[in-house]
Amino acid sequence: MTSPIALVLDSPGAELLAEWDTNPERHSMSAFELNAALRTQGASAEVAAAVITQCELRDRAEAKLGPLARRLLFTRDGIEQATRLAVATAHAQRFAASGAHTIADLGCGNGGDSLTFLLAGLNVLAVDIDPDAAAAARWNLQAVAATLPTPPDATVIEADVTIMDVPGLAAQGVDAIFADPARRTGAAKGSARILSPEQWSPSLPTVLSWRASYERIGIKLAPGIDHTDLPADCHAQWASVDGNLVEAALWTPALAPEGAGRSALVLRGETTHVLTDPQIHEATAPVPQAPTGALGAMIAEPDPAVIRSGTVRALAEELGAHLISDKIAYLSGDTLPSTPFAARFEVCEVVALRPKAITAALRAMDVGQVEVKKRGADLDPAALRSALKLSGSQEATVIATRIAGRHRAIIARRVRD
User: Fold this and answer.
1) Is residue 140 helix, strand or coil?
2) Residue 127 forms beta bridges with which residues?
3) Could you give the maximum distance between any two Cα atoms of the chain, in Å?
4) CA angle (35, 38, 40) in 5-degree steps
């Protein structure tokens, strides 16, 4: 069976993809209707399916890569694993600022990070074990290189990183490594998550062993990685985009001008914000404890990158806030300044964590639309929301948590920054 990527690299798939991807009529057509239109133009069933798939994948990729996605090719797994463009650009800036010249992108997928390395002026050797992913990456790097007046060198090879002589790449001029280990089971890497870094492919210890040959190594990590699994002298950074946690990455000292430790990279729109805690001097350092106190007039929910990086204490100090319950990441105070590192809410009422009590409070506020948040409470937000019988015109947030060790529902209104 011909590869679906190969089918859109050559005629007639390439021409049909270029035509239909930009055709506004496509968005009002069902997949069946689009397939029929393609078949009418002489496309085989395989070519029609490949064109439709690429149009759909480009639609999805646009959320991560912006308009650039419309010139690229993708695999389904590649879309799931692709780095957001803004985050990938931050990766590339680290390597470029370090003085790197040639980077090996190991486990490159569809080449999302490789593209930004190329745009930053770095020569790129991109490697992936999946033939379709490698083919897509090859096309994508060529497409970007064609837009540059003097493009760096870009090579894509299909190979198994776990058996590759990675230290030997230094003889080919490679002076930096970016590794994205496979962290899922199954041939397509789309099944269960592999939690242990020692079971990743290649394993985290294997990637770290390459430090004997390279000073500059960046590693994409599972966001849920335990801090104790990190090398103490490196810098780990958790990244979020518009409030959604998207990745964690580890940087060796040559790529970490901020020094060893942990930080949160928060991207809001086109703006980048970084939060560090001066009390965290090593990547493995314990999470500093923020002070606790009573619930004030406002409550803040830290960004997930802040929580995962263990920098809540630093945020509390910046806001003049405190935790309302030990080890539960809700901060409070009578006044909380605007911050990119947390969502803020005005506290309206506190009631027992029971549907009847919550419904009564919300009805008194004429609330008909409610979002439910929880931390430190064992409940299903969807189930609680469906149990609330509301018909008002206002919006509110129910925060299910513990206050001074007791389960409570905080009725609040979101502050729009």
Assistant:
1) helix
2) 106, 157
3) 72
4) 110
Alpha carbons 326 and 68: distance in angstroms, whole number: 45
Closest CA to 317 of 295, 339, 296: 339
Beta pairing class for 176-179 and 298-302:
unpaired
Residue 379, CB-side half-sphere exposure with 13 Å CA sphere: 24
70, 35, 38, 39: which is closest to 55 by C-alpha?
70
Q: Is 302 helix (H, G, I), strand (E, B) or coil?
A: strand
Three-class secondary structure assignment of 80-119: HHCCCHHHHHHHHHHHHHCCCCEEEEECCCCCHHHHHHHH
Question: Would strands 235-241 and 261-268 be described as parallel, antiparallel, or unpaired?
Answer: parallel
Cα gap 111→144, rounded to integer Å: 11
Per-residue pLDDT of the chain (417 residues; tens, 9 = 90+): 578 899 999 899 999 999 999 899 999 999 899 999 999 999 999 999 999 999 999 999 998 888 999 999 999 988 888 888 999 999 999 999 999 999 999 999 999 999 999 999 999 999 999 999 999 999 999 999 999 999 999 999 999 999 999 999 999 999 999 999 988 765 444 467 777 899 999 999 999 999 999 999 999 999 999 999 999 999 999 999 999 999 999 999 999 999 999 999 999 888 999 999 999 999 999 999 999 999 999 999 999 999 999 999 999 999 999 999 988 999 999 999 999 999 999 999 999 999 999 999 999 999 999 999 999 988 999 999 999 988 889 999 999 999 988 899 999 999 987
Give the Cα separation of 164 and 188 in Å (integer).
20
Question: What is the rounded CA–CA span in Å between residue 141 and residue 155?
Answer: 8
Task: Label each residue of 216-258 as H, E or C.
Answer: EEEEEECCCCCHHHCCCCCEEEEEEECCEEEEEEEECHHHCCC
pTM of the model: 0.92
Beta bridge partners of 245: 240
The token duo for 39 is 């078949």
Instruction: Kindly list the strands in the beta sheet with 123-128, ordered across the sheet, starting from the edge strand earlier in the chain.
Output: 154-158, 123-128, 102-106, 176-179, 216-221, 244-251, 235-241, 261-268, 271-276
